[in-house]
Amino acid sequence: MALLPVDTDSTPDDIAALLAVDAAVRAAVGFEHDPPTATALHWAGAEGMWMALLRPGDGRALLAGWHHEFSLTEGSGRAGEAGTDLVGDAPGWWRRGVEHARSRGAYLGFLYGWDGTRWWRLDQPVDDGFDPELFPVTRAALRDIIDDLADSTLLDDPDPDAVEALLDAGAGLTAAHLAAVLHAPDGWPEVDLEAGARAADEYRSTVPA
């Protein structure tokens, strides 16, 4: 099955920076986030949806994930299931995305490979569930996620300019960047700005390119 280019301008470095900001905001408001490991940055959303950025080295990357409503493919995320072949004739290192899903007992809906220049996917006849507006792979998507996190934790609406500064900072964000975004009316609910900054700092040297 042929490989097709993926229509997204976000590089692996862009996505890693966005995931660092997401983790920082979640940690600051008391939500759980997946800490980065030596091989993957894992993100989990509502209803079991998830995404992971894997960096096999040599400038390559994989973007794997699943959406509970829109993923009509099933790429052997559950151990022992045949599922949909999301690797096909792609390079063998793409199978690391399948292995990552299996290691978590998770369904796998999409699997994209970065060759150092652009993203590619296997040509599939059905929707794989990847929507850059729903996953933190673009600045616009992460703005919406931050707005939702603030709303669900009863914080003030984030200032748009402060959010832009936070996104610009990426993994280098500070407690001050978070303080400008996460306002708690009358000091409640409490926001742990230092916990957020520590979460972002974990991303600085994790998952080498």
What labels describe this entry?
6 strands; 209 residues; six-stranded antiparallel beta sheet; alpha+beta
Task: Walk me through what this model shows.
The protein has one domain. 32% of the residues lie in helices and 15% in strands. The chain is an alpha+beta fold and 209 residues long. Strands 1-6-5-4-3-2 form a 6-stranded antiparallel sheet, with helices on both faces. It has helices at 12-28, 95-103, 139-152, 160-169, 175-181, 193-201, and strands at residues 3-5, 40-44, 50-57, 60-66, 110-114, 119-122. A hairpin with a 2-residue loop joins strand 3 (50-57) and strand 4 (60-66). It starts with a strand and ends in an 8-residue tail after the last helix.
Helix-strand sequence: EHEEEHEEHHHH
Which descriptor suits the 3D outline?
Answer: elongated
Biggest β-sheet description: 6 strands, antiparallel
Total domain count: 1
Q: Ranges with pLDDT <50 over ≥5 residues?
A: none
Integer average pLDDT: 91
Number of helices: 6
Gyration radius from CA atoms, angstroms:
17 Å
Into which percent range does the helicity of residues fall? 25-40%
Alpha-beta classification: alpha+beta
Termini, distance in Å? 28 Å
Short précis:
The chain is of the alpha+beta class and 209 residues long. It has six helices and six strands; from the N terminus they run E-H-E-E-E-H-E-E-H-H-H-H. Strand 5 and strand 6 (119-122) form a beta hairpin.
